[in-house]
C-alpha cells in the first residue's frame, strides 16, 4: 500500500503537469456546458415552464449542466490513456518496479481534479447569471460528494475505451451518449409532460435522480427517496466500471 500510494501520487503529478502546461483541456471542457447554460437561460428559458416553486430557470438548470460538465471532462481520460498507450508509456512503466494499478489510478485522479476545477468554473458562471441558493455547508458537501461519486464512476467507465479503442476519435466518442443523456431527463424540463415511453425512460435513468437530489439540496427541500436512488446509481456505476476497467487492463497487459 505505501508503494501504491507513492507511485500513484508521482504519476498523478505527471498527469497534472500536462494539464498545467495545456490548460485548454479544462477550457474546452467548460465551453460546452457554459454555452448550453447561456443558450437555455437566455434564449429558451422564458418559454420553459418548470412548474410552481421555481423562481429562476438557471437555478433549475444548473444541476443538469454540472453533470454535462462531468460527461464532457471524462472524455479526456480516454484521450490521455489512448495517447499514453500509443506513445509506449505503459510498456515503459511495466518494466519498472511500480504498482501496476497506479497507472490507471493516476489518470482517474487527474480526471477528478480537472473536473472539480471545471465544476467550480461553471458554478461561478451560474452565479454571475443569477444562480442563488440558501444551501448550507452540509448541503454543499452532499452535492460535492454526489458529484465526486458520479465523476469517479464515469471516469472508470472512460478507462475502458481508453484501453481498447483503435483510434483517437474512438477513444473520445464514448462520451457523446453521456452528454446526450441529461436531455432525456428532468435536467432541462419536468418529466410530467413527456410522452409515455420517454417519460418512463427519463424517470428511471440515473441522471434524473441525481439532478433531482442536487436541485432539492440547493433549494433546501426534502430530498426524499431520490438521494438513495442517486447514490445507488453512482455506486453501482463506479463498482461495475472499476471491475470492468481492471479486467480489461489485466487482459491487455497479462
From TrEMBL:
The keyword Chloroplast does not apply. It holds the Pfam family ABC2_membrane. Residues 24-252 form the ABC transmembrane type-2 domain. The chain crosses the membrane at residues 26-48, 60-82, 103-131, 137-159, 171-189, 227-249. GO terms for molecular function: ABC-type transporter activity. GO terms for cellular component: ATP-binding cassette (ABC) transporter complex. Its main location: membrane. It is a multi-pass membrane protein. The keyword Repeat does not apply. It is found in: Cell membrane; Membrane. Keywords: Antibiotic resistance, Cell membrane, Membrane, Transmembrane, Transmembrane helix, Transport. Belongs to the ABC-2 integral membrane protein family. This is Transport permease protein. It comes from Mumia zhuanghuii.
Amino acid at each position: 500500500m505505501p508503494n501504491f500510494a507513492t507511485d500513484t501520487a508521482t504519476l498523478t503529478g505527471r498527469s497534472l503537469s500536462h494539464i498545467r502546461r495545456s490548460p485548454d483541456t479544462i477550457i474546452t471542457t467548460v465551453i460546452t456546458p457554459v454555452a448550453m447554460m447561456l443558450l437555455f437561460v437566455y434564449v429558451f428559458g422564458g418559454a420553459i415552464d418548470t412548474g410552481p416553486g421555481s423562481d429562476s430557470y438557471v437555478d433549475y438548470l444548473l444541476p443538469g449542466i454540472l453533470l454535462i460538465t462531468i460527461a464532457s471532462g471524462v472524455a479526456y481520460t480516454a484521450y490521455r490513456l489512448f495517447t499514453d498507450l500509443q506513445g509506449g508509456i505503459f510498456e515503459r512503466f511495466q518494466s519498472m518496479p511500480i504498482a501496476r494499478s497506479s497507472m490507471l489510478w493516476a489518470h482517474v485522479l487527474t480526471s477528478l481534479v480537472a473536473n472539480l476545477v471545471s465544476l467550480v468554473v461553471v458554478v461561478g458562471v451560474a452565479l454571475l447569471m443569477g444562480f442563488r441558493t440558501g444551501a448550507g455547508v452540509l448541503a454543499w458537501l452532499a452535492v460535492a460528494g454526489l458529484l465526486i461519486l458520479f465523476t469517479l464512476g464515469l471516469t472508470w467507465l472512460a478507462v475502458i475505451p481508453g484501453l481498447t479503442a483503435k483510434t483517437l476519435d474512438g477513444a473520445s466518442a464514448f462520451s457523446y451518449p453521456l452528454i446526450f443523456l441529461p436531455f432525456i431527463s428532468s435536467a432541462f424540463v419536468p418529466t410530467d409532460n413527456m410522452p409515455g415511453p420517454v417519460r418512463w425512460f427519463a424517470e428511471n435513468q440515473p441522471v434524473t435522480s441525481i439532478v433531482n437530489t442536487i436541485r432539492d439540496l440547493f433549494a433546501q427541500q426534502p430530498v426524499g427517496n431520490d438521494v438513495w436512488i442517486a447514490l445507488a446509481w453512482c455506486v453501482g456505476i463506479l463498482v461495475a466500471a472499476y471491475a470492468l476497467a481492471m479486467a480489461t487492463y489485466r487482459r491487455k497487459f497479462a
